[in-house]
Amino acid sequence: MQRRHQPIARDAMAYVLAGGRGSRLGELTDIRAKPAVHFGGKARIIDFALSNALNSGIRRIGVATQYKAHSLIRHLQRGWNFFRTERNESFDILPASQRVSESQWYEGTADAVFQNLDIIEAYAPEYMVILAGDHIYKMDYELMLQQHVDSGADVTVGCLEVPRMEATGFGVMHVDEQDRITDFVEKPADPPAIPGQPDRALASMGIYVFRTSVLAEHLRRDADTPGSKRDFGGDIVPYIVRHGKAVAHRFASSCIRAESEKEAYWRDVGTIDAYWQANIDLTDVVPPLDIYDTRWPLWTHAEVTAPAKFVHDEDGRRGSATSSLIAGGCIVSGSSLHKSLLFSGVRTHSFSSVTQSVILPNCEIGRGARLDKCVLDSGVRIPSGLIVGEDPEFDMRWFRRTDNGICLITKAMIDALPEQYHQ
Questions:
Q1: How many CB atoms neighbour CB 187 within 10 A?
Q2: Torsion of the alpha carbons at 333, 336, 342 and 346, rounded to the nearest 10
Q3: Are 345 and 329 in contact (CB under 8 A)?
Q4: Which Pfam families match (predicted)?
Q5: Is residue 298 in some structural domain?
Q6: What confidence score (pLDDT) does residue 3 get?
Q7: 368 φ, ψ to 5°?
Q8: 20 to 30 A from 212, CA-CA: which of 189, 246, 298, 375?
């Protein structure tokens, strides 16, 4: 499908749903919402959806926040404050603010849009692109908007092709030969297959395109419907499937891929294992996700930091890194890093080693410590001599260790260690 001369995206507004906790990430989301979790050395998870919108040509964006939103709002204010009203651009942060009821927070994904419908209608966008703020992918929403207009659909639903029995955790759609959705079910035990592909299913990405007037009509109807969960996947889309026209948009047709990316890349980094793996994948020689592709940049808050520095050059005490990503402000002092990702402001001291680990901003690795397959939350100070990743029993006692051997370490966990580690 070719782009038109007048992009539809200029008449669209992107609305990012970023209020979820993401409890499967454990203590990483104790103080922040899942979309605010750091990713890739510089960015936050939400930056992918926002960058896709910006790169697609959308210049009106709203972000609905709810759960522990301070760090997310702070990031958005610092990194996404460049929109200009005189260019008909806007960027709105929309916390749950009891706009409809003095006692009602956002009750579901659809309600998070409904409660801000007056703000949306004041901007008068012709189309709405509803996005989840907690997935890692690159996508041109203009192509999805084009399909929506050409098909005459009431709603277009972004979807992934996945192995059929892996779709049990998603909203799954059954489609006809023209990709019109004939059934939409949430987390089915026996997912419907794609026509002609009995072992594959179409799983919802949590991306929806509507004409704004149609969306407003359905949101108001749903708000007046007793028993509704106020949810797009559970209520709005199934209703349109039964009473209107819903069409599937396949991610492969609008995924942005650099020359090195062999497959369409989409990840839900909603578990510690998935989060660790997606970050560590970036250290590959040819990673499955190319964050260096300047044709589709990942926009984020650009911190002012000094260059990364590697010091000491003695046998056994050499600052070195192999197959690793090191952000600005890091000092690797007489220590070795392998297949690891360090966010800004990390310090690693002499004789320490870090392997296959994801180190969030402003952490410090003490002298002689050894870390393997770890995720360190922001600001963690690893005591000198601490070893994590070599003794499963010790790791399980003091840290959150997954079945795959990944250890999540927080400041509270370090504080709870025996006194001998704090001397």
A1: 13
A2: -20
A3: yes
A4: Hexapep_GlmU, NTP_transferase
A5: no
A6: 47
A7: 75, 5
A8: 298
Sign of CA dihedral 362, 366, 368, 370: negative
Q: Is 186 annotated as a binding residue?
A: yes
Residue range 317-364, pLDDT digits in tens: 999 999 999 999 999 999 999 999 999 999 999 999 999 999 999 999
Which of 359, 365, 292 is CA-nearest to residue 332?
Answer: 365
385 known ligand binder = no
240 contacts 246 by C-beta, under 8 angstroms: yes
Between the two ends of the chain, the Cα-to-Cα distance in Å is 64
pLDDT-derived band at 20, boundaries 50, 70, 90:
confident
Same domain membership, residue 315 and residue 279: no
Tell whether 302 is covered by a domain. no
Counts of helices then strands in the chain (DSSP H, E): 10, 31
Q: To 10 degrees, what angle do helices 141-151 and 46-56 make?
A: 60
187 is in an annotated binding site: yes
Can you tell me the mean pLDDT for 32-53?
A: 96
Where in the sequence is the domain holding 267, given as residue range(s)? 8-283
Q: What is the mean pLDDT of the chain?
A: 93
Based on the fold, state whether residues 45 and 79 are members of the same structural domain: yes
Q: Is the pLDDT of residue 2 over 60?
A: no
pLDDT tens digits along 61-89: 999 998 888 999 999 999 999 999 999 99
Please state, in angstroms and as integers, the Cα–Cα distance from residue 419 to each residue in 381, 414, 415, 416, 422, following that order: 15, 10, 9, 9, 5
Q: Which token pair is 131?
A: 């996005």
Helix (H) or strand (E) holding 155, with range, is strand 155-163
